[in-house]
Design brief:
This protein has 679 residues and is α/β, with parallel strands linked by helices. Among the domains are: 189 residues, Rossmann fold; 130 residues, ANL, C-terminal domain (GMP Synthetase, Chain A, domain 3), CATH 3.30.300.30. The protein has 21 helices and 32 strands. The protein is globular and about 70 Å long.
């Protein structure tokens, strides 16, 4: 076993030449943090302490990042101490089998509780603020939250649930979701959730694999001015989950929903009625005790059940929130998300930074597209998280929050889910807020973290992700498995990190896990993103590598096409896929671009030529699609991601296995047997 001695003095690590910002004079940032912002950011004292304690000769940020990668044991130990992990025991050993990936073990002697680290505060300050389409609905103080968690924990104990049992939730993004998750985590019960817009088969595809003993549900949800009752689906779900001992219904649409037809069902207040708040007993569990089961959102096969450990999830949350996002006690953090997305977990984790978690459930385009900015203004958001698609939609709607809203507290705008195009940076800084750190981040469900991350002390470059995340040995590999800079390739992580999955549920022997991430480059995590590491240390993401286009043997990232197409006024959204060509004896692929146009427009030769001209002028002739086809809708996941692979499969006559992951599976029919693609 390797042990970290007290603050060792490692050999000074120098940054490779590839990291030097040789083009910084030619390409200017669109935002630069002020000296005051740098000085007040939490990452600043942390980095200074590292420089001092480990006697780094190079004080530059690239050298600091490289130190975090070259010294993983020391780095993660310092994150533990600086961020104040609450634990019964840390232990002297940080990493065992660090050369193995997968197989490395972190903090093997540690004992801690995830929920205890989130419930650090017990005061009357806001823990949760909840808005829906109607505006403010509720505030929940830390004190009230702690009391509710105590009662729910007692109820779980009375039901006989033990550490390692699973609790599932079919619930919108409301305060009860976080409260019930905390109660489960306090006892070491594994939490898993999905949003109530899933159909019953989609829920069973997920929860049926993990056999939960308790199911938390809401009676329904609101979206786009409509109410959706889900209790009929809950009854169907209950029939398919024989492992359930109890179904707890959270009233959301109505005060007293009728649950008489649902077996083993009880309303939340009735379930908690006989328990009074008392001091919470936090189970002290190993670092790798499972905390979450998250699900992949692919369209092939049943969803993968990705198991994440408590310790790794906590360390990454603390690092990301405190050092990368600079979330401080009293900050008010928002991210538009649903409970089936890892971003919900990330938002929920803001409690460990002693912040207020700002919740929203419903359409983000209510109040003529202004509701989220109304929310941000009234509640003084410090962090606003959203998606590239949302920002693009704001621009196309002609909205200018900089003219209509006052956002003095807003320090950071975060975007994830898909690459943020360069023009969206222009829009944010000209039409939303000038002095704000706009950071597109990239990571995901698989890693419970980001590979490319926000950073409050670094500049923002148009169309680029600010930096590689601290402690994450991120590189870009070419097809030969060689690291490259300034070239497109596969995003990889070459060293283990604490938040890598414990594995997949019921994947005995770990074959599916290894195949998912370690097959292409053995011993190296391959994430599936097609991207570029710039000479400045920033990153550009071009799309999923498994959805890259390959006409004539040249790989093209789909995001390169979307960057051009979706800035055309007539285009609402698009999806580009490769069609095997010719169909009867395919020897190549050709690029097919499907476009959904704004209301009132029809694809004609003029619009087609406009699209092709823009693509050709701003990329290369190889990017120009062989065919452009108008469609009425484009399939996307429930998280809003366009599903390129599903469209590609339909276009090429291949089967689709899992349409329950889609918000609009019927849209796939629009791509079948198209006459336009026969010639």
């Amino acid at each position: 076993m390797k042990k970290v001695k007290a603050r060792p003095k490692p050999r000074t690590q120098r940054q490779p030449k590839a990291e030097a910002p040789r083009r910084s004079a030619a390409i200017k940032p669109v935002w630069t943090p002020s000296a005051q912002a740098i000085e007040s950011a939490q990452i600043t004292p942390f980095a200074r302490a590292i420089v001092r304690m480990y006697q780094l000769e190079d004080h530059s940020y690239p050298a600091f990042y490289q130190w975090t990668v070259d010294n993983p044991e020391a780095f993660w130990s310092e994150v533990w101490d600086f961020c104040g992990v609450i634990a019964a025991k840390k232990g002297a050993t940080v990493l065992v089998d660090g050369a193995k990936m997968p197989g490395a073990k972190w903090f093997p002697d540690a004992r801690l509780n995830f929920a205890e680290n989130l419930l650090r505060r017990g005061d009357q300050g806001d823990a949760f603020v909840f808005w829906d389409e109607r505006g403010l609905q509720r505030r929940v103080s830390y004190s009230t939250l702690t009391s509710d968690v105590s009662r729910a924990q007692q109820a779980l104990k009375a039901l006989g649930l033990r550490p390692g049992d699973r609790a599932a939730a079919f619930i919108p993004n409301i305060p009860e979701a976080g409260m019930l998750a905390l109660a489960a985590l306090a006892d070491g019960i594994v939490w898993s959730s999905c949003s109530p817009d899933f159909g019953s088969s989609g829920v069973l595809d997920r929860f049926g694999q993990i056999e939960p003993k308790i199911l938390f549900v809401a009676d329904g949800y609101r979206y786009g001015g409509r109410e959706f009752d889900v209790l009929e689906r809950v009854a169907q779900i209950a029939e398919g989950l024989p492992s359930l001992r109890k179904i707890v219904v959270v009233p959301h649409l109505r005060a007293r929903p009728d649950v008489a037809e649902i077996p083993k069902a009880v309303l939340l207040d009735e379930w908690l009625r006989k328990f009074a708040p008392e001091e919470i007993e936090y189970a002290q569990l190993p670092f790798e005790h499972p905390a979450y089961i998250l699900f992949s959102s692919g369209t092939t096969g049943t969803p993968k059940c990705i198991v994440h450990g408590a310790g790794g999830s906590l360390l990454q949350a603390l690092k990301m929130l405190k050092l990368q996002f600079d979330v401080r006690p009293g900050d008010r953090m928002f991210y538009f998300c649903t409970t089936n997305w890892v971003v919900w977990n990330m938002l929920f984790h803001a409690l460990c930074a002693e912040a207020t978690v700002m919740l929203y459930d419903g359409s983000p385009f209510e109040r003529s597209g202004n509701i989220l900015f109304d929310y941000a203004q009234e509640e003084r958001f410090s962090h606003l998280g959203t998606s590239a698609k949302f920002i693009d939609s704001l621009e196309k709607r002609g909205l200018a929050p900089i003219e209509t809203h006052k956002l003095p507290a807003l320090r950071m705008i975060l975007s994830t889910g898909s690459p943020l195009v360069a023009e969206s940076y222009d829009y944010v800084y000209s039409r939303v807020k000038k002095d704000v750190c706009l950071s597109s981040i990239s990571g995901g469900t698989d890693i419970m973290a980001a590979f490319a991350d926000a950073n409050p002390i670094l500049p923002v470059y148009r169309g680029e992700l600010q930096c590689r995340s601290l402690g994450m040995a991120v590189q870009v590999f070419n097809e030969a498995g060689e690291p490259v800079v300034g070239q497109k390739g596969e995003l990889v992580c070459t060293k283990p990190v604490p938040s890598m999955p414990l594995g997949f549920w019921n994947d005995r022997g770990g074959e599916k896990y290894r195949s998912a991430y370690f097959e292409k480059f053995p011993g190296v995590w391959t994430h599936g993103d097609w991207c570029e590491l710039t000479e400045r240390g920033t990153m550009v993401v071009y799309g999923r590598s498994d959805a890259t286009l390959n006409p004539g043997g040249v790989r093209i990232g789909t995001a390169e096409i979307y960057r051009q197409v979706e800035k055309i006024d007539e285009v609402e959204e698009s999806v580009a896929v490769g069609q095997l060509w010719p169909p009867d004896n395919p020897t190549d692929t050709r690029v097919i671009l499907f476009v959904r146009l704004r209301p009132g427009f029809v694809l004609d030769e003029k619009i087609s030529e406009k699209i092709k001209t823009r693509i050709r002028a701003n990329t290369t002739p190889r990017h120009v699609p062989a065919k452009i086809v108008q469609v009425a809708d484009i399939p996307r996941t429930k998280n809003g991601k366009v599903v390129e692979l599903a469209v590609k499969s339909v276009v090429n006559g291949m089967p689709i296995g899992n349409t329950d992951a889609l918000a609009n599976p019927e849209a796939l029919n629009l791509f079948r047997n198209l006459a336009d693609l026969a010639a």
